[in-house]
């Protein structure tokens, strides 16, 4: 059994690939290395450098490697930047998904797990987001992910595509010392880079309508997220009925200020964060119920907040020393 992982050289994708391998499932990776790293893909995994916008490459990969399903992680994922680069975001996330689905249909590959996002919900006044919470994305990124879900839905009707989408939240931590978040926009690497450089980390906005004024999010460990992707893939192979989409959430969430406090605790670096302006497209609070995913995929949070910070910091410091 072989599964294609798009974006499999990225922070999340590489964890998914390793989780597949550990479950005894062969993986093949397509990644254009725009944000991924070739060294994140272990030696035994077949790797093709290229973009999912290249339909011929995708089709050839599906056919040559006898792929029976796809875990689609590739995409441009920066909500704030997507406000400034909407056309690029739609090209990568919407057109890329369309090209991928067309190649899958031509190759006769009928299963896909889509890495969607909590950004499809946008701002909401609900204390707990469920899968049927109204969708009101506040950024082109969130819109592109919602359109991706629609594409899967429509291919399910038109071509019998078996699919599910995983709507996840802030992904942090590391499951391996050689794989870590290198995003220039995500909270953990931004804070760690500041600490390593002797700068003061900052919070983007402290005037949100939340208890301490900073954004509240679900933070989940990347290894837990990877296991959910593998569980969804296995369920599709077994033909088990799945919901169109699942939230991977804690049901509780944590604020950015709480994250900063955990970082000071774990790293031993005492600091008071600076306050900067809000980032465009950032909702105030998104916390989700993971009940459906727990029921169908065995989803659960296996790491505490301090454990998430500790694993991320360990991988970051190991990278700095190598």
TrEMBL record:
GO terms for molecular function: UDP-glucose 4-epimerase activity. InterPro entries: Epimerase_deHydtase, NAD(P)-bd_dom_sf, UDP_G4E. It holds the Pfam family Epimerase. Pathway: Carbohydrate metabolism; galactose metabolism. The keyword NADP does not apply. It is an enzyme of class 5 (isomerase). Belongs to the NAD(P)-dependent epimerase/dehydratase family. This is UDP-glucose 4-epimerase. It comes from Protaetiibacter mangrovi.
